[in-house]
Fold this sequence. Notes:
This protein is of the alpha/beta class. The protein has a single domain (67-272), classed as Alpha-Beta Barrel (TIM Barrel), CATH 3.20.20. The chain has 10 helices and 9 strands. The strands form 2 sheets. Strands 2, 3, 4, 7, 8 and 9 form a 6-stranded parallel β-sheet that branches. A 3-stranded parallel β-sheet has the order 1-6-5, covered by helices on one side. Helix 5 (145-163) packs across helix 6 (179-187) and helix 7 runs parallel beside helix 9. Residues 76-257 form the NodB homology domain. This is Polysaccharide deacetylase family protein. It is an enzyme of class 3 (hydrolase).
Amino acid sequence: MADGGGRWERRTVLRRAGLLAGGAVLGAGATAQSAWIADRRLALAGGPASATLGSDRQQVGDGGVSVVWAARTEQPLVALTFDDGPRPHWTPMVLDTLDRYAVPATFFLVGQWARRHADILRGRLGRHEVGNHSWAHHDLARHDAAEVHDDLRRSHDAITEAAGVAPRLLRPPYGHLGGAVLHAAARLDYWLVLWSLQMVERQYPDDPAGHARRIVAGVQPGTILLAHDVGDDRRLVALRGLPDLIAGLRDRGFTFVTVSELLRRAGLPRAAG
């Protein structure tokens, strides 16, 4: 009986453990499902999907907004961009590398970090340009036009103060676009800049040279290349491989330019405005 009781007790423990594990899986699934349902129920009229604000005349700057992923050009030009900074440990390392090789880049700054770490940028942006990447890296596609405008305006002011120049480019966090983001971008007279190629650090753990070769092979004329100057240590693969990436692209005949210069040389002069 003692053995039988032990078997039943073990079965009970295993069954309960299975139920707990199943509950955890179901809980995670339920969370994802809830988020999906919430996204499906985001308001249309006046909500994140709406590209208009109220029924009065729309205050949208010049009345339009451009969205770019790359530039249509046969010139061997590439724009290197960095998102999410500035932060103390990584941004200076990136700036040092770019200075060493005289490479310009575009930094899409998060407003709260630009305000907190303005000293990182001071005197370091001569060949570079800055863009707006929101105040706190929240998903702007989940907010209405007024909220998105207030977020970007706050970030705009912080970046202008920290960098000494007003950003004219916007990259929304995660590359998520909604009508509200378009409306706010037009209102603030921004160009919306996404990307056509991005770093793939997770595919090349501990192999900066291999990662650099992969990116060099994927660049085409007019590419806007996405990198990050903050994050977890996996992203350091891309940053440690920057010298190889720069050398590889120059060997292919490419010239590095800022995003605005890329768009200007592709025939879109307003971008440099």
